[in-house]
Here is the input.
Amino acid sequence: MAIRTRGTRPGRAVAALAAAVALAGCAGLLTWWNTDALGADRFCAGALTSTEAGSALPGPGRIVQQSLQDGSDPYYSFSCKVQRTNKFLSDDQPGLEAELSFDGADFAWAGSALWKDASAFSYFVGGATGAASETQAWVLLPGGCPGAVRPNSKESEVPVLKVNLAQGRTTPEALARVAMSGARHVADGLGCKETGTLQDPARLQGPAGAPKPTDPANACGIPGFRLPEAALVQGKAEPGTERVTGKESRTRVCSLNLKGPTAPRIDFAVSDDPVVTQGVRQDKAATRERSRTVTTCKDGDLYLGMSRNDAYSDLLLDEGMDKASQARTTLFEAFANAVTAERGCGTPKS
Here is the structure.
């Protein structure tokens, strides 16, 4: 006959309870480490909500704020980094940085090494002036920001909120939301008066379809924009393909990817956005250079800009200084004359 020992069942109950508590504790730790449960509601001194951060940084792990600079010491500055962290994944996790900088109003189309492939961006339609891709976004702040004036500041520079994603990709819409929230926060810090322009865009306008072959007589889909012979080099830079952003945004960008072993490229930008045209007009050099100008049209000011990647610039220099100068001048003239003729504008300023 089996002998029952008193206390066996309570002992089992205690052990089961302890196991349950341990499992609950482990589950709680897993939830804490691998999700945003009970995490912060806002980041970056309130500039960014947890929802905005989560949509821009998808995936497992917990979002944490890595660094923050937000204040006037003695001049206002803003920089914030947030990142996904995960106790179980050794690979680098996605993170983003939002930062206030001061640049030319057309910095995104000026051939910067950090802001490439302008025609791959989706541009804001309605609301603020900005653009976003799967890894970057920017918003131009309005004029009249007292905090933007500081020693050694240049009249040609305007405040810009920039967002860069490290590791991975997200949607342009997610980064646009982050950039807009950051821009409003920074505008408050700079004391901007015309914050009514910082409205959310109605939508984003990306590239108008896949790249297509360039018509040398109507490049970028602009009637009469004929690529000058001086801008081409046989076997090294010949008409190839082009990609153009859609027509709904006030800013349109076209990238000409020329056919050649070094992948030469030329970017053209047209904008009648007042934030852009007024910002560029502050740069007195822009009205004298052939690659950046603002001209007056029947419907208001129009910005025209052109930039070249290093491969194309180097290629022209290899052909000689005269060739490079002639190519730059004739190419911009052909572009500007075609655009202004189409839009009923005056002759672009040299």
User: Anything to note?
Assistant: The radius of gyration is 27 Å.
